[in-house]
Design brief:
226 residues, alpha/beta
């Protein structure tokens, strides 16, 4: 579903991947609810209802690749700069977005990545077990564990990143974001990490999140910085 800005248009676009542990999609508070937030900044929002793996780990990434192809192919029609399309993801959607940001086909490289309380690693010590099992199975091939541990695949060419989470996240250990952030810094990729003292997991656009204004202001400032 596509939400285009009306008056102000910067040409920038964000493809958002809602969370849901690769089992379902929280596409309201981690998707549609962000339409006005981005519209006021002159940014187009594309909410992706990617398919669940159901035994085929390639399916979500395939859907995100296709979404990027579609947005690029309609860029002129939609008033979008094809070189300024980023990816955003929440929780398991953050894993999908970071998978795309570290394994993208050359012609589909995202301009930036926004990761909110993301699953990053398939390392059994820090992963979100439900997301891992739904994506690559109960007893996954070690090569798949490595491939989808995205902190291991950051390069000097990875897109700049904004990462936000709560320090008391009881579902996805903050270590996921810390490892990814450290890998980005190691490769001198611009990265901004924001850890809030409370909020746990899954807050998205919910009014109940005490630091909602803070994260939205900081994300808006970051988006204006390049």
């Amino acid at each position: 579903r596509i939400f285009l800005p009306e008056r102000k248009n910067t040409g920038r676009a964000v493809i958002v991947c809602p969370g849901g542990a690769y089992y379902r999609l929280a596409y309201d508070h981690e998707g549609y609810a962000y339409a006005d937030y981005f519209k006021h900044q002159g940014i187009a929002l594309i909410v992706l209802k990617y398919r669940m793996p159901h035994g085929n780990h390639k399916v979500p990434m395939s859907d995100l690749c296709e979404a990027m192809r579609i947005v690029k192919s309609h860029a002129t029609e939609w008033g979008i700069n094809p070189d300024d399309i980023g990816v955003m993801g929440f929780s398991a959607g953050g894993h999908l977005a970071s998978t795309f940001a570290t394994h993208y086909p050359a012609e589909l490289k995202p301009a930036f990545q926004i990761l909110i309380y993301p699953v990053i690693s398939m390392d059994s010590g820090i992963t979100h077990q439900g997301s891992r099992e739904n994506l690559i199975g109960n007893q996954p091939d070690p090569q798949l564990v490595d491939y989808y541990s995205n902190e291991k695949h950051v390069t000097d060419e990875s897109p700049r990143a904004f990462i936000a989470l709560s320090g008391d996240d009881s579902a996805v250990p903050p270590e996921n974001s810390l490892r990814y952030y450290t890998a980005l810094l190691r490769h001198k990729v611009p990265a901004s990490l924001h850890i809030y003292p409370s909020g746990d997991h899954g807050w998205g656009y919910n009014e109940s999140f005490r630091f909602k204004k803070a994260v939205h202001d900081e994300l808006a400032d970051w988006l204006r910085s390049f």
